[in-house]
Amino acid sequence: MATDQLREPVAVRWGLRVLTVSYVFMLVAWPTALVFRNALADGIGGFLKAFDDPAVSHALALTLTITVWAVVINLVFGVTISLLLVRYDFPGKRLLSVLIDVPLSISPVVVGLALVLVYNGRSGWFGPTLEAWGYQVIFSTPGMVMATVFVALPLVIREVVPVLEEIGDDQEQAARSLGANAVQTFRRITLPGIKWAVVYGVVLAIARSLGEFGAVKIVSGNIIGQSQTATLAVEATYQNFQQTSAYAIAAVLALAAMACLVVVSILRPKESS
Predict the structure, then answer these.
(1) I need a surface site. Which of 162, 163, 206, 214 has the fewest CB within 10 A?
(2) Which of 66, 226, 90 is nearest to 150 (CA)?
(3) DSSP annotation of 52
(4) Residue pair 56/245 in contact by the 8 Å Cβ criterion
């Protein structure tokens, strides 16, 4: 009886549902659907023809390379930083936690400019030294990987940290008391407990890395066939009135990101059951 009294009126519940669904539909679903509709406006043949351009193929391959490197780096350092934040106390811990959220609060363009100031080969802090050693960062793939890692850094950490806090460290301490070393404890106790948080963080990092534009544009130079990623190719083809190609590339990027989310949503219920 108390539960029934606390429930909202039917009209309120339906009103909230309609408002929420309408908001998501108009802001996310409908604009995304229009991208796919325009990509297929000339049929499958027109859609596939966009990828005959070597520049487009190179842009997609470069985006895939950058995404793989960025996700692997963020996976390793994301899990490590999460363990550091949850399992250990040290001076500056709160400051480190705040710094991790910085990529979420500043513009990717600012990220790109910051990396240029530090790593450009003429006047950057480390750029001239690195180029003297034969490593070019800005206007090359390492710079684009760094920019993508920067903007996607919090995604793995913010998924793993709450789960680590929730599961606690009792089982880890029990394993260590039985003689397990750090690697065995992580592989047999910690990792199984956080694996779905890691997977979801990785999926978010993939989706974010595939769609990164501002920071990569600043550090890449946007040279066609050399340092132009898929998102930059979308802009270039759209501005050159090659709208079918622009929509086709955008559709591929959106499809890849959505496929990752669908896979996780399918696997998660199986895990919970």
Answers:
(1) 162
(2) 66
(3) G
(4) yes
